[in-house]
Amino acid sequence: MDGSRSSYPPVTVTARLDTPLSRWLWLVKWILVIPHWIVLIFLWIAFVFVTVIAFFAILFTERYPRALFDFNVGVLRWSWRVSFYSYSALATDRYPPFSLGPEPDYPARLDIAYPERLSRGLVLVKWWLLAIPQYLVIAFFAGGMRAGWWSGGLTTLLTLIAAFALAFTGRYPRDIFVLVVGLNRWVIRVAAYASLMTDRYPPFRLDQGGEESPVKPWPVEDR
Questions:
Q1: For residue range 144-173, what is the model confidence (pLDDT) as tens digits?
Q2: Would you say 141 and 184 are in contact if contact means Cβ atoms under 8 Å apart?
Q3: At what angle do helices 153-169 and 132-142 cross, to 10 degrees?
Q4: What is the structure's pLDDT at 18?
Q5: Residue 153 and residue 138: Cα distance in Å, rounded?
Q6: How far apart are CA 6 and CA 40, in angstroms?
Q7: Are 154 and 141 spatial neighbours (Cβ–Cβ below 8 Å)?
Q8: How confident is the model over 92-96, as a mean pLDDT?
Q9: Would you say 175 and 208 are in contact if contact means Cβ atoms under 8 Å apart?
Q10: Alpha-carbon distance 14 to 81, whole Å?
Q11: Would the CA dihedral through 108, 114, 119, 120 be positive or negative?
Q12: Can you tell me the distance from the alpha carbon of 216 to that of 107, in angstroms, rounded to the nearest whole number?
């Protein structure tokens, strides 16, 4: 693999801690996000079917159909916004939009660079065999799956600690915020890889903080 590709991250996850935050709104957010969870259940069912179709498209053409790719990116974006609002971060009180689009003004954002070509060989093994070590890691700190998104575990524990700190001090601890975003970023990178949206293996690295380098086109070697 060309080492120059390291300057072209295929998955970019950014987040901004909103201030001020309500001391007590987090107690009822589980109710407020129920409409989103209902929609996301159906979106993630569609996500699975789209990924299966993309699997065969990549196997025969080395390409992920752009319309299908954009849909799956939209599902991941929607899930990330809802997670950020609710119990994977609790870092904003701004209600997530019902949207598959990028929503650049929302404090939680996600972009995945469209790959012009993907490996036929990797598509056969990356979503199960190669991703097993990553699944074991994220299961430890991200818990289980709910409405298509990992929840529970270390991430939720840290988020609840931040919520109690917010309730009693009026402040969301910055150190917890950057760690929680880093954990979510790791999960999203694995989700993008396992759903065949990139051939770049997720790094075993906790990139903390709210900002990442912008997504740039990912050069592809001639085959």
A1: 655 545 556 899 999 999 999 999 999 999
A2: no
A3: 30
A4: 96
A5: 9
A6: 32
A7: yes
A8: 98
A9: no
A10: 11
A11: positive
A12: 21
What tokens appear for 216 in the block?
Answer: 């740039």
Q: Where are the domains of the chain?
A: 11-194
Distance CA 223, CA 15 (A): 37
Residue entry with tokens 């060309």? 2
How many residues are present in the chain?
223
CA dist 77 and 143 (Å) reads 20
Tokens of 157: 């524990």
126, amino acid identity? K
Gap between the Cα atoms of 2 and 111, Å rounded: 22
CA distance 42 to 38: 7
Query: Over the chain, what HEC string results?
Result: CCHHHHHCCCEEEEECCCCCCCCCHHHCHHHHCHHHHHHHHHHHHHHHHHHHHHHHHHHHHCCCCHHHHHHHHHHHHHHHHHHHHCCCCCCCCCCCCCCCCCCCCCCEEEEECCCCCCCCCHHHHHHHHHCHHHHHHHHHHHCEEECCEEECHHHHHHHHHHHHHHHHHCCCCHHHHHHHHHHHHHHHHHHHHHCCCCCCCCCCCCCCCCCCCCCCCCCCCCC
The string of pLDDT tens digits covering residues 33-74 is 999 999 999 999 999 999 999 999 999 999 999 999 999 999
